[in-house]
Design a protein that fits this description.
Largest interface: A-B, 29 and 34 residues
Structural class of chain B: alpha/beta
Radius of gyration of chain B: 19 Å
Shape of chain A: globular
Number of helices of chain B: 14
Largest sheet of chain B: 9 strands, mixed
Number of helices of chain A: 0
Radius of gyration of chain A: 12 Å
Oligomer: heterodimer
Structural class of chain A: mainly beta
Low-confidence stretches of chain A: none
Number of strands of chain A: 5
Helix content of chain B: 25-40%
Distance between the termini of chain B: 17 Å
Strand order of the largest sheet of chain B: 3-2-4-7-1-8-11-10-9
Strand content of chain B: 15-25%
Number of strands of chain B: 11
Helix content of chain A: under 10%
Distance between the termini of chain A: 25 Å
Chain lengths: ~80, ~375
Amino acid sequence: MNDLGAGTIYTETVVYSPPEAYVNDVPYQLAIIELSAGRRVTGRIVASSEGERAHIGDRVQFAEFRNNVPFFRKQP
Amino acid sequence: MRAVAVVGIGKTAFGAFPDRDLRSLAVEAGQKALENGHASASQVEAFYLGNFAGPSFTGQNHLAPYISTAMGIRGVPATRFEAACASSGSAFFHAVSAVAAGLYDIVLVAGVEKMTSQPTPKVTEILAGAGDLCGEVRAGATFPALFAMIARRHMYQYGTTREQLASVAVKNHQNGAKNPLAHMRKVITMEQALAGKPIAEPLTVYDCSLISDGAAAVLIMPLERAREFTDQPVRVLGIAQTSDNVALDEKDDITTLRAVKTSADKAYKMAGVQAADIQFAEVHDCFTIAEIIAIEDLGFVPKGQGGPYSLAGGTCLHGERPVNASGGLKSKGHPVGATGAGQICDVVEQIRGQAGERQVKRNTLGLAQNLGGSGATSVITILGAA
């Protein structure tokens, strides 16, 4: 899979009421990320520390794909 | 094109009904609409059904003839329309188009959903099927999450507040408490609405519409024949359905639902009216933010002013322009496939002056806005006294 590179949070939420497939993941942060390459993608944000939140406008870096879902990490 | 009129309406109560199956709900609404329009099943020339996910919720497929024959409607075209939460709005649009074109005279439209037989995570998953399964949904998006992301962006761009969102819920519960067929007839306070259990930040349980069972039906015919059946026909002055991308991340600006704007523009043009002329509306408040964006995209208020206008009471029952006098999806309930047809029934009741405690004062020109998914389908209907 390709590296999606860096991007900026366009919008985000933290999900508490999950679909059946993700009942063990809650709460999780979901975001639409504007990639530096131009397009937008919906992915998850992984917190580097307990309680870390990413907000609109924050820069994020692609971390990995898990089951075809892109995960991003907030840039320090 | 022939002018089309609504001559009969019928609704079941919306709520959680463990003893009722999908078909019995749809049949009840359909029979009430026939009775209300003083017509018999044998006069119906076509049956249009709106239903989002009957096969997923109940396992039953081939729903249109399954329902129509149980009502005694035999031998005519009976077809199901699926457009997520705009399913019965879409069925109504296509039925009106067929009558206007002269294909049929007397047509019954019904919408139904039976949702409460499944646990909430399963319902959430079925509803998410109205989104993009290969992108946003696989990443963990639910419908509350999609509208939460819309709300966050709207707050960021326009300064919309949690209190403004909550004011929509408080107002709709106030109205719904007056509606004998509403799912949750309960007044809530601003403090309760702000302190609700989080579902998807910034939305709490009080920002989300209800998971409901229910059905609604509408009998239509050419205006020229309507007075054979009723002395209170309501005319379809304008109607339009438009579409847009399914995935939220494919939309340029998620604070505007493009399909709502394009369908509203077309319906206003067809009716020969402007946004300012609309006296009251039933809008698709699947989430509080959706009502705020709807009143902006319908042109009732400038972009970004939906929140302040709602908090100031402009959309209250006795405000400048009442919105969701029925209680909306928030309090009345949201059996998704029934919602569009239910909105038509609610607008017709207002125009006939039959809305009881919920009656709006200026009631001769009303609008219904039915939305599918996060804006991939929009149906706008403008109704007026004939």
